[in-house]
Every structure is written in structure tokens, then in C-alpha cells.
Design brief:
By secondary structure, this protein is an alpha/beta fold. It has 5 helices and 11 strands. The strands form 2 sheets. A 9-stranded mixed β-sheet has the order 2-1-3-4-11-10-9-6-7, sandwiched between helices. A two-stranded antiparallel sheet has the order 5-8.
Length: 233
């Protein structure tokens, strides 16, 4: 299968995503510049982390207007799987493809460390090989990952099982201490109502090989390959 990895001015995790897809998984992968209007026959799309357009105005606020986002939106509306990682998640929020918004981290500090995620839902293309309650150790690197939304939106997200990942302890406990940025309900990642769009602040592409300190993130990439091809990687 083929991954399209969108590249915006300021993206800095695009090569990490490419490496995970191409060299670790052995799948086809191609960079798509933000001014392009075609995803070139991709089967899955990754919006990578970084600082698109220098994070001017707000994170993702300018990138949402890039021509490639029209193609990403059309792809998603047809059921195509889209993964937004860190800045990619922020872009999905700004584009209205996922609900809510991001604030500065609680404490106003940039956080760069490994965290634990509890998998809440396994019926998305990117969690199909996970087990409910599975704990993944993956890194974060962000200054604006404090997820917020109106109470009614949070209630709907919970009711429709759209919270895919929560910050938790290694023992799978959802606590304030395990929350690195102050996100409401310890939300680390969401999916769309159609479940094909997933956004999360942690970086699974930086946790695909043991030499990096964890390969727990690999399951997200393996999941989408299995979901689309019907075979294990």
C-alpha cells in the first residue's frame, strides 16, 4: 500500500513518518508538498508533526488553507484513513476535520519526554491491532497540546467513543499526574465520527524501533496496513 505524507513549510517529522512507512514497514511512501492538489493514489495519508508556517497565528491555522488540504478532506470524506500527528492533529482541528482546539500546555512549558497512552478504542484503522486498555509508551514534543472543547462537545466525544487515546500511567490509570499538558479528560487522541480520521499529540513514528527507546508506536502503522490489505505486516 501507499502512504502520502503531506509536507508543509516548517514540517520536521515528515522524514520520521516516511522512514516508519517505507523502511520499517516496507510499504510505498511519497512526500506531497502542501501546494499540490493530488494525493497521487495514496491509500493512507499522514499529516506529520512540526511547526507548519512557524505556528504563526495559531498552530495549524495557516496550514489548513494549503491546497493539499482540499485533497485530504476529499480523501477522508470517501472513507480514506488520515492520521494527524502532533502538528498534524492541530491542523485537523483547525480544518474542522476533528472537533476542539489546542491551548498552551498547562505550566506554559514545552514538553519533550516519553508518556504512556491508554488505547480506548480499537475500531479505527490505526488501532485495529491494539487491544482495549493497551498501554503504549511513546514520546511527545509540543508546547501547545492542551486539548479543549465545549462541554457539550466533550460529552458527544465520550458518548460516540471518539476518544481513542488517553494519557495514563504505565499501570493504565488515568491520573492528573500522567497528563503532561492539561488536556481535558486526559485526551491524547481523537477520531472522527466516521472513525477513519485519527489525530493524536504523541509521536508514534518516533517509537517504531527498539533503538529509539520504544517500538510501541509501530502498532498504529501496522494496524492501517492490516485494515487496508487484510494481511499482517
Amino acid at each position: 500500500m501507499k502512504f502520502a505524507i503531506a509536507v508543509f513549510p516548517g514540517s520536521n517529522c515528515d522524514h520520521d513518518a516516511y522512514h516508519a512507512a517505507k523502511h520499517v514497514l516496507g510499504q510505498d511512501a511519497e512526500f506531497v508538498w502542501h501546494k499540490e492538489t493530488s494525493l497521487r493514489g495514496a491509500d493512507a495519508v499522514i499529516l506529520p508533526g512540526g511547526f507548519s508556517h512557524g505556528d504563526y497565528l495559531r498552530t495549524g491555522a495557516i496550514a489548513r488553507f494549503s491546497p493539499v488540504m482540499d485533497a485530504v478532506r476529499a480523501f477522508a470524506e470517501k472513507g480514506g484513513p488520515v492520521l494527524g500527528i502532533c502538528n498534524g492533529f492541530q491542523i485537523l482541528l483547525e480544518a474542522g476535520m476533528l472537533p476542539g482546539a489546542m491551548l498552551r500546555n498547562a505550566g506554559l512549558k514545552f514538553r519533550c519526554e516519553h508518556v504512556y497512552l491508554r488505547v480506548e478504542q480499537t475500531d479505527t484503522p490505526f488501532t485495529a491491532l491494539c487491544t482495549p486498555g493497551q498501554v503504549l509508551r511513546v514520546p511527545i514534543a509540543h508546547g501547545e497540546g492542551n486539548y479543549v472543547a465545549d462541554p457539550a462537545v466533550i460529552e458527544a466525544l465520550e458518548a460516540h467513543r471518539q476518544v481513542v487515546f488517553r494519557y495514563a500511567t504505565a499501570a493504565s490509570e488515568v491520573t492528573d499526574e500522567a497528563n503532561p499538558n492539561g488536556s481535558v479528560h486526559n485526551i491524547a487522541g481523537l477520531c472522527s465520527v466516521g472513525r477513519n480520521i485519527v489525530g493524536l499529540m504523541p509521536h508514534p513514528e518516533r517509537a517504531c524501533e527498539s533503538v529509539l527507546g520504544s517500538k510501541d508506536g509501530l502498532v498504529m502503522f501496522e494496524s492501517v496496513v492490516t485494515a487496508l490489505t487484510g494481511s499482517r505486516v
